[in-house]
Amino acid sequence: MGPCRRTSSTGQDGHGATSGDDEEWRVRARRCTAWGRRARPERGSRAPAVGRAGAVTVAVALLTGVPGLSAGQQAAAAGAPGAYAFDEGAPRVEGALSTADAVLLEAGRTYRSTLPASGPVHYRLELDGASNVYVAATAAPPDGGGAAVVDGVKVSVQDGDGRSCDVDTTTFGAAASPHPVAASAAREISPRRSLCKNAGTYYVIVERADPDGKGASPDAWELELTTVSEPRPAQAGATTAPDAWDSAPPEPVTGEARRRAGGAGFAEAASLGEGVWRDDIRPGQTLFYKVPVGWGRKFNATAELGSSSSGGTGFVPAALDLDLYNPVRGHVADVGIGYDGRQRSGSLSPLPHVAYANRHAPRSQVAAMRFAGSYYLVAHLAEKVADDFGDGPVPLTLRVRVSGTTQDGPGYAGEPVPPDVFAVGEQDREAVADGRDAGRAGNDSAMTALAVGGIGTGSALLVGLGVWTAAARRRTASPGR
């Protein structure tokens, strides 16, 4: 975990941060805040980038609602790198100021909501006495706003008497660059827990981690809420985590890189498998990828920023933030990479094989590797990279390794909700092979989609796009540009 990134998950069984941990974090937070102030140069005025992306911006404005182009793809094509692509089928619900007015969240559903600049919002769960339920909140701050180092999103689940079942916090980290972050809390039925076992009404509380921190955004944030239900195993299994696992760093994957465009949100995450994958990422942009990892399998990833062609100089100490989330959007691990215009790389810390019994581990990174399913890699390039190296894209390479022997799962007594959340099937493997789940189109792909979708809007627009594209290409080819 990066020295200026905190994720914590504390349940009523006592696992999680202690008072000593909290004091250590407060010291680190003060240092990181000062580091962020020293590292960030004053923003100078820059002329807006001219080229193909500019043409697409106007095209998107004229073609709002074009079939086949998601909101995330429209935003990316329009030059809004920080825009988050929400699940397009998610209904909107309003978080309540009091538990008395909390709206019901149903298992297996995704919702949209709003997180105010200060104060918590409440939602309601109606739970049985046999299933584990996980609720994740993905917070999407507005593009171009401020961010405090230890601000982010905090999620907790409480019973009807206000007792805590679980709490989780994920923050922006040292870069203090606003980007989507997710935290997940659970109502887990376990022999180690004396509370939160019974059927009944529970409450989900979502709030900002540090809304009063220096540089924190004064704006409301958009939220995406997901709920997952996990049935109990058909047969009782191990009640302790595996004693030992190979924690040696694996060798990074080598070979020719394949192009795969990352998505603009969890719902649009591009499918990756073992191999070397190539993309481009712009300052302020966040890209989402998903990797199917079955029971008994082991996952590792290395991220590389390629050398800059801008001619700029400087150093951004926390330029790239790479986060790993599990199938219920629980934070697993992260790595931060500094950038000075030369190629730089960083790897996630070694993780155990995916096993149901990992949930009994005291270490949060191990406990988070408790499910088979899609694990999400989320890459964010800090906005301040543009100050030294321009607004153009930076080459990004992901080296993904999935090793180990596939094993049988726990044998659930019922069906998870949604039913495929903890499974890796043939469809997942096919998606990796053909890339059809790649959610974010590049500029060329976006322009193609816009042109095709806009046929019915009139030939004049297509002619205009063609002229503008040709002009942009001539400007790109002109000397001195």
Automatic annotation (TrEMBL):
Membrane as UniProt keyword: yes
Transmembrane annotation, as ranges: 446-471
Keyword Transmembrane attributed: yes
Biased composition (Polar residues): 1-12
Span list, region Disordered: 1-26, 229-258
Keywords: Membrane, Transmembrane, Transmembrane helix
Protein's name according to its UniProt entry: Peptidase
Organism of origin: Streptomyces prasinus
